[in-house]
Amino acid sequence: MMRVTNKSVNESVIMRLNSISSDLFRANEVISSGKKINRLSDDPVGLVSVLNLRASLANLDQLERNLAAGRSWLEAGESALSQVESILSATKALCVQMASGNVGPFQRSNATAVVEGYLQQILALANTRVGGRYIFGGTKTDMAPFDLHEGAEVVYQGNENPFSIKIGRNMDLAVGRNGKQVFGDGDFDWSDPDAGHDNVFKTLIDLKAHLSGNDTESVRETLSRLDDHLHQIRSVISDTGAKTLRLDAKERIIDDLKLGYTERMSRIEDCDIAEAVMSLKSKELAYQAALASSSRVMQLSLVNFI
After folding, report:
1. Concatenated DSSP letters for the chain?
2. N or C: which end of the chain has fewer CB within 10 A?
3. CA 248, CA 63: separation in Å to the nearest integer?
4. Rounded distance between C-alpha atoms, residue 187 and residue 185, angstroms
5. What is the pLDDT along the chain (306 residues), one digit of tens a residue?
6. Cα–Cα distance between 63 and 20 in angstroms, integer?
7. Is the pTM of this model over 0.90?
């Protein structure tokens, strides 16, 4: 008959105690963390799934930040253009008044100061910034897109590529603007009164000259140019509203995706607390029983064992 040595018995007992102790530690860790998976060995396949879901959630968080930034740009653009619309409407009302036969040269001359004020206001709005970046200069967002030269010419310093944000895989949305498309192309001879009829700034500069020269016919003709500008500005405002609705739809999609990913991740890694507590109690009992059994086998007291 093979004789079992005390050393073998002791090693077997210690290994069993270590194994039960490890189980007890993991059971306690599950409860303290609230997670079934705390390391790769707990569930390799589940952990890979959780990491993939976390990466997907991180991508969605980035998209949410993009959407928030894009919304700020669209809101700032809509606010600026709404003010431009109001100023152009006020300019139109002024033209109607100044084209009247009841108004004299002196009043028309004085009205040039009003138009100059309108010009400066629209220029400031065309140079609107969000977070220090200009929204009407295309992708050239670090420089004021419009500059007034000697009060007679407004130069566009931006480019023709609207600033865009990423709202999905291979999906971008232009939230900035090519200033030329909004306020008109400035590539013409500014000294020519017949040039630049689609340019808001040229219209106001010409109107000042008409009022100063008491040219009522030209003042009256300015009304049609202002109507064209108003139509263009309202078109851009409408387009901005459509883009805002698109952001709203995208945000709802992202919210649904985040909820789905979070629920899937929870099913994989979150523990059932009641079940985890029962498991811990069971392992505590097993550990206590193993200690008692080991003490008898090794003829050691619990105090000696510790």
Report:
1. -PPPPHHHHHHHHHHHHHHHHHHHHHHHHHHHH-BS-SSGGG-HHHHHHHHHHHHHHHHHHHHHHHHHHHHHHHHHHHHHHHHHHHHHHHHHHHHHHHTSTT--HHHHHHHHHHHHHHHHHHHHHHT-EETTEESSBTT-TTS-SEEEETTTEEEE-S-SS--EEEEETTEEEE-S-BHHHHH----S-TT-TTS-TT-HHHHHHHHHHHHHTT-HHHHHHHHHHHHHHHHHHHHHHHHHHHHHHHHHHHHHHHHHHHHHHHHHHHHHHB--HHHHHHHHHHHHHHHHHHHHHHHHHHT--HHHH-
2. N
3. 13
4. 6
5. 444 455 555 556 566 656 555 555 565 555 555 565 565 556 677 777 878 888 999 999 999 999 999 999 999 999 999 999 999 999 999 999 999 989 899 999 999 999 999 999 999 999 999 999 999 999 999 999 999 988 789 999 999 999 999 998 889 999 999 999 999 999 999 988 889 999 999 999 999 999 999 999 999 999 999 999 999 999 999 999 999 999 999 999 999 999 998 888 777 766 545 555 565 556 555 556 555 555 565 554 444 444
6. 46
7. no
55-262: CATH topology is: f41 fragment of flagellin, N-terminal domain (1.20.1330)
Measure CA of the first residue to CA of the last residue in the chain; give whole Å: 33
Q: What is the largest CA-CA distance in the chain?
A: 132
User: Phi, psi at residue 137, to the nearest 5°?
Assistant: -115, 20
CA distance 14 to 21: 10
Domain residue ranges of the chain, discontinuous segments joined by +: 55-262
CA–CA gap between residue 112 and residue 199 (Å, rounded): 18
